[in-house]
C-alpha cells in the first residue's frame, strides 16, 4: 500500500500494529489519530512514514491536541517521528514512547533532540536496539514528567546524560560499553535494574538516593558492581545480586 486510506474509517480501533510498510505514507492514519479511539500504535520498518504530508492538514494542531487519544507509541527513528511538527501533535497525549534505531544511527540530530523535548507528557521512554548509538539526547532532563527510562541493547553508549528529576525507575540492559552511571541519580528514584553491563564497575559517586526500593544487578554484571551493591543490603528493601 502506498497510503493507509483503506483504514482511515476504522475509527473504533484502539490498537494498531503495522510493520514492514516500506515507503507507505501516513495520510490515512491521521484521521484515526485525530478523531478515532486509537490509544496504542506499533509502527516499524516504515522509512520516512511521517515525512509527508504536512500533518497539520486537514487536522490542525488544536483539533488534534483536543481529540487524539494516542498514549503508547512504538516506532523507529527512521519513520520521521522525531520532527517538531509530529511531536507537537503528540505532546499533549503521548505517555509512552518506545524508540528503536537502525544499524547506522550514531546520534540524534539537533532537530530530533529538540523535537523529543516537546513530548512533555511522556512518562515512559525506551531506547532500543541502538547498536551504533553513541549517546542519549543531552536534553533528556527536560522531560519533566518522565518516570520510567529503559535503555536496551545500545552497545556503543559509554555514559549517560543528566536525567530527569522525576525518574522513579531506570532499567539498563545489554549496554556493553557503558562504564559508569551519572555521579548523581534523581532523588525520586525507586528502582534501578542493570543487566549484562559488564563495564560498569561501581555505583554513582554520590551514592544512591534514599528513595530506593529495589536494586537488581544479578544478571551478567561485573563482580565489582555486585560487591558494591551487597554493601547496601539492609539499607534498601530489595537488593538482588
- The mean pLDDT is 91
Derived structural class: alpha/beta
Using the CA coordinates, give the radius of gyration. 19 Å
Number of strands: 10
Cα-to-Cα separation, first versus last residue: 50 Å
Oligomer: single chain
Task: Using the alpha-carbon principal axes, give the shape.
Answer: elongated
Portion of residues in helices? 10-25%
Q: What is the helix tally? A: 5
Low-confidence sequence ranges: none
* Helix and strand element order: EHEHEHEHEEEEEHE
Tell me about this structure:
The relative contact order is 0.08. Helix content is 15%, strand content 19%. With 241 residues, it is of the alpha/beta class. Strands 1-2-3-4-5-6-7-8-9-10 form a ten-stranded parallel sheet, with no helix packed on it. It has five helices and ten strands.
List keywords for this structure.
241 residues; alpha/beta; ten-stranded parallel beta sheet; 5 helices; 19% strand
Question: What's the short story on this structure?
Answer:
With 241 residues, the chain is an alpha/beta fold.
Annotate the secondary structure layout.
Blueprint: E1 15-19, H1 29-35, E2 40-44, H2 61-67, E3 72-76, H3 84-90, E4 96-100, H4 110-116, E5 124-128, E6 148-152, E7 169-173, E8 191-195, E9 214-216, H5 223-230, E10 238-240
Parallel strand pairs: 1-2, 2-3, 3-4, 4-5, 5-6, 6-7, 7-8, 8-9, 9-10
Helix pairs in contact: 3-4
